[in-house]
């Protein structure tokens, strides 16, 4: 999407967005969502954006309010948001979420909120959130206190992908201070809700905001700007480092996405941890240092063992001398097969839809699809040589014509049967044969 390359958003007091950015954004996307809690920050964001839109652009704007059900006032917050949107004449969507039991209610609410955002957004859509400069400083401080690394110290990104491909989350107020936001709200006579939990100091962020930041500001009056600009520098450095790591890792990974550990064996422990961290970060997994060290230890065991490390969203596994991350959604794919179902569905679908209008009768005579390979030692060795991870093997389709094995997925084809071409990939619930010619 082109707007990712647009100049940084310049907003100043009275809060006005760079018109070029607004026009570029609305011309490229189908829907611009605003995450609206009903609080002052998101109300200002919504109001400021709406006041700069043409009627045509306004039709692309939609507001999303997440009802967490945590506060006794949650229903009245929802009605408040709805009324604000009615007055501004913009589309309003509310979504109720169920919180998962988690140690921190804050985390549970945030996770449920982002999941809801992801569910609602489709490609060519953008979600604007009202995090501002003070939020950024608090975030960096908070992460520093929790012992974060370079990625965490870069703070919240101005823009990142969210959910489906082509959907983005943007934070246009990161350069604006809370003081400026409140001043805009007073000037425009906005009404907003006060979330009672914002005063609760059992939540670390509130504790930092209320107790720690005021003391720091006595000595460092420009604390927020300084932290935010430091975070920006770290963000750039970290981006460069990640690109470098990604390029290098691509050279060390096999076609199944496994990282070849033999490249790491000569490196120091620090370097092994560095590569491991970046390999996992490329898969959107960020592990605390201690867990990362545990994974590293697990990997340095004997090669004939197949250790695995369970995470909430998948498993880190080693096969031969490669490390893989298998996300939960792929595990569903790899769950034991209902072979009858697959044989019936895949094969007929292939012949009906996979190869451009073939009809059932065109199935090569005597062709049979099977997911049983007989487990011959020769085959096992061959699959080992090809580095096919063991957990995929029972999901490889074997094509027989009469009793002769003529193809194994897209990995192998019998030289005497050049007309049999199988394209195979793991997709959705069932391994799919893409075409059989
Ligand atoms: N319940 C919600 N529904 C929709 N968007 C939300 C909700 N809660 C937060 N957001 C979005 O995420 C941003 C950051 O949330 P955070 O909880 O850090 O701030 P906040 O104190 O809720 O901000 P605000 O002053 O807008 O209430 C909000 O400004 C808003 O854009």
From TrEMBL:
Protein name in UniProt: tRNA(Ile)-lysidine synthase
Catalytic activity: cytidine(34) in tRNA(Ile2) + L-lysine + ATP = lysidine(34) in tRNA(Ile2) + AMP + diphosphate + H(+)
Domain notes per entry: The N-terminal region contains the highly conserved SGGXDS motif, predicted to be a P-loop motif involved in ATP binding.
Keywords: ATP-binding, Cytoplasm, Ligase, Nucleotide-binding, tRNA processing
EC number: 6.3.4.19
SMART domains (UniProt xref): TilS_C
Pfam families in alphabetical order: ATP_bind_3, TilS, TilS_C
InterPro entries: Lysidine-tRNA-synth_C, Rossmann-like_a/b/a_fold, TilS/TtcA_N, tRNA_Ile_lys_synt, tRNA_Ile_lys_synt_N, tRNA_Ile_lys_synt_subst-bd
Metal-binding found in the keyword field: no
Enzyme class: ligase
Localization annotation: Cytoplasm
Organism: Marinomonas ushuaiensis DSM 15871
Main location: cytoplasm
Cross-referenced HAMAP family: tRNA_Ile_lys_synt (MF_01161)
Domain Lysidine-tRNA(Ile) synthetase C-terminal span(s) in chain numbering: 358-424
One record GO biological process: tRNA modification
GO terms assigned for molecular function: ATP binding; tRNA(Ile)-lysidine synthase activity
Binding, ATP: 37-42
Family per similarity comment: Belongs to the tRNA(Ile)-lysidine synthase family.
UniProt keyword Nucleotide-binding present: yes
GO cellular component: cytoplasm
PANTHER family, per database record: TRNA(ILE)-LYSIDINE SYNTHASE-RELATED (PTHR43033)
NCBIfam families: lysidine_TilS_C, lysidine_TilS_N
Function: Ligates lysine onto the cytidine present at position 34 of the AUA codon-specific tRNA(Ile) that contains the anticodon CAU, in an ATP-dependent manner. Cytidine is converted to lysidine, thus changing the amino acid specificity of the tRNA from methionine to isoleucine.
Domain of life assignment: Bacteria
